[in-house]
């Protein structure tokens, strides 16, 4: 009986955790789409990133610099060198999704 009660308490918590991770994966998928073709110009044109299968060589290889999410978002908002700013063409939610995707896919801090 104790085990059943324990499970009853555990299930809602599990449901919350599963819902949260499904949400995070959606953000990852959205970021990947933006990386490949949603952003203009597309990140893939200039950056190599294994997860995206891109081989652009104008900007740094993202698997090598492994930027954390804040570093990606900063580059997108302000631009850097020949990399254009995306502040006018991407929404905050899109910048957030790209920062999540690039940091997670490259192994940088979230
Ligand atoms: C026209 C080519 C070009 C495009 C398109 C481009 N980048 Fe870049 N990116 C660069 C270059 C060049 C640098 C290095 C700039 C420097 O250090 O002077 C860079 C740097 C970066 C950095 C490192 C920032 C840092 O702090 O060192 C990240 C992260 C990044 N880009 C992500 C992206 C993402 C995500 C996109 C798509 C939304 C994108 N880039 C689109 C050329 C590009």
TrEMBL record:
Q: Which UniProt keywords apply?
A: Heme, Iron, Metal-binding, Signal
What does UniProt give as the signal peptide span? 1-24
- Describe the location of the Cytochrome c domain by residue ranges: 26-106
InterPro entries reported in the protein's UniProt record = Cyt_c-like_dom, Cyt_c-like_dom_sf
Q: Which GO terms describe its molecular function?
A: electron transfer activity; heme binding; metal ion binding
Residue ranges annotated as coiled coil are: none
Name of this protein: Sulfide dehydrogenase
Give the species. Caldimonas thermodepolymerans
Q: What is the lineage of its organism?
A: Bacteria, Pseudomonadati, Pseudomonadota, Betaproteobacteria, Burkholderiales
